[in-house]
């Protein structure tokens, strides 16, 4: 191949059109081709990720967009809730007054525990703490009712309770010192600070 010389005022430049210019064009084409292929692969990866997220979301949600019951329960269990029959329970890790305890439970979508049966009473009696339950007579002295407004029908008072020892005792604890589940309630001043047991129904 014959070399071509280009003269200018400063010097002469020798180049080979078929080799240098064509070579540069080929390199540019290869670069663009690689960029296009990389972009295509990136699009495929993103599409696969989006499909995966959609599949996961569909698995944990129902037609209305709410989290499935099983998934909700798993979430509750991971943050300390436990189940008995148709209710979920959460025993606090801090002590509060009865009113503040109830506010805490309500803030969690629950309320202080309402005992509806001897089976439930035996269940909560197995918890190794003294704690507030949702029983009080703050509306009418001596007329005990639950936080859901239902009157007291099943009685699990400790011996000599309710006693009102030392003043007005309008709130109730599940007392730890009694060994019998059927005799473990004790009335206390609502200002006292205890652990507390929240209860909420399992979502349908």
UniProtKB/TrEMBL annotation:
Top-level taxonomic group = Eukaryota
Q: What name does the UniProt record give this protein?
A: Uncharacterized protein
Q: What is the lineage of its organism?
A: Eukaryota, Metazoa, Chordata, Craniata, Vertebrata
